[in-house]
């Protein structure tokens, strides 16, 4: 964590009055600032609030909205709600997971371009199976179309560099 990030985390802690009862709000604000909660941030928060690192880590891992891994430039969400699931969203997820070279609990591609997540419902059941990329809905997906969309983005990103 660089000095600017450290200073910003300290400002967030101070803004919440260094109150251990504000731990969740502090974690939310730090994640909003950095897109994830780094180990360094968790340790700094624990130290500054005078609470055990295990408590901070426990809260950060209990709530699904917190991420301990840096997010990619593009957020890919595959719906796993009932309508999407019965219309075969799992093979879409599996194809994207394989295309991005992910393994285990890792959700972000090595090149930092993509983060893959599943969601319980995207609220577009009539369009199932659904996938979003950076909030843009892609309806009636299949594994080949999903991978093709990511390949397009990767090609654009490559030409932009």
Written description of the protein model:
The chain is built from 7 helices and 4 strands. Strand 3 and strand 4 (136-138) form a beta hairpin. Helices cover 50% and strands 11% of the residues. Strands 2-1-3-4 form a 4-stranded mixed sheet, covered by helices on one side. The mean pLDDT is 93.
- The largest sheet has its strands arranged as 2-1-3-4
> What is the radius of gyration computed over CA atoms, rounded to a whole number of angstroms?
18 Å
What is the number of beta strands? 4
Shape: elongated
As residue ranges, the low-confidence spans are: none
- Which strand-content bin applies to the residues? 5-15%
The count of helical stretches stands at: 7
Q: Order of helices and strands, N to C?
A: HHHHEHHEEEH
Q: CA-to-CA gap between the ends?
A: 25 Å
- Helix/strand structural class: alpha+beta
Question: pLDDT average, as an integer?
Answer: 93
Can you give the helix content as a percent range?
A: 40-55%
- Biggest β-sheet strands, sense, barrel: 4 strands, mixed
Q: What's the SSE blueprint?
A:
Blueprint lengths: L2 H13 L7 H12 L4 H11 L3 H10 L11 E6 L2 H5 L2 H11 L14 E6 L11 E3 L2 E3 L4 H18 L1
Parallel strand pairs: 1-2
Antiparallel strand pairs: 1-3, 3-4
Helix pairs in contact: 1-2, 1-3, 2-3, 3-4, 6-7
